[in-house]
Specification:
- The protein contains 2 helices and 6 strands.
- The protein folds into 2 domains: 1-48, no CATH class; 51-94, no CATH class.
- The chain has 114 residues and is an alpha+beta fold.
- The chain has helices at 30-43, 73-82, and strands spanning 5-10, 13-20, 23-27, 54-55, 58-63, 67-71.
- The longest helix is centred in the first third of the chain and has 14 residues, at 30-43.
- Residues 103-114 have a biased composition (Acidic residues).
Length: 114
């Protein structure tokens, strides 16, 4: 797993925290996100700006508990326009098999320090 992504599991449900400079993205169930936010607020001054909709040129949308969509179509359109390739034809690129994150065991309550 990437060095800027941390994972744990509570009650069999995974939680992922991605760190980028001074920003965090927390992925998990609503209850587990709230748990992590409360633990972080107990140790640090943080600001919750709500659900992520755009991150590193990726557009992100989701239906809670059902689906997550990530797209770079807006960024790709911008790059194609910059290089005069707006009329090029797209080609399907399926995700490689086996790129799923490793499972993590249930964790103790609280944020673990490395």
């Amino acid at each position: 797993m990437d060095g800027g992504i941390y994972a744990r599991s509570v009650g069999g449900s995974p939680i992922f925290v991605a760190v980028y400079v001074d920003d965090l993205v927390i992925v998990g169930t609503d209850e587990n996100i709230e748990l992590v936010l409360n633990e972080l607020q107990a140790k640090f001054q943080i600001k919750d700006i709500g659900p992520v909709t755009d991150l590193l040129h990726m557009e992100i949308s989701y239906v809670s508990g059902q689906a997550l969509w990530m797209s770079q179509s807006g960024y790709i359109d911008k790059v194609l326009k910059r290089f005069g390739m707006e009329e090029c034809r797209p080609v399907a690129t399926p995700q490689a098999l086996g790129n799923l994150p490793e499972t993590v065991e249930d964790d103790e309550p609280g944020v673990n320090d490395p």
